[in-house]
Amino acid sequence: VVNEAKPCEIDPSRLRDGEDAETDLGNLFTYVRDAVNTIVSSGLICPPVMRDVFSTLKSQAMLNYPDNTAVRYHAVTSFIFLRFFTAAIMGPNLFDLYSDILDPSVQRTFTLISKGISGLVTLVSSKSNNVTAKEEYMAPLFEMFPKSTQTDIKM
Question: If you ran DSSP here, which 8-state letter would residue 100 be given?
Fold first, then answer.
């Protein structure tokens, strides 16, 4: 993301002259898709101590919500994505993932990637399959993801 510095702005009120919202949407989709795929495939290298935490979280969710079989997945997925991955993507400097000062447009791209991942997790965790977004400009991004991606996030 830092090296490529591809434009990813999809908020119409923030688009600069000459920027193409469709191209930016495609760039953002690629970054979010790649991030989700990397995160989902990293499960096998998750440290044992974290797996223990996730197991406890899953058990507690099942204990507190015995009638909701999906809650065990939603609790763990939301916790992992929203507390770890999206925070690290939005603030890579805070997690020692990048040490230089980020260009504002690159920082905005990281923010949009984080919002994209967060929105997908929220969509997966909701009881509705309707694509809605707190920020309407994000809806086209979520519509680009196939249901298989949503299934992968649940795991």
Answer: S
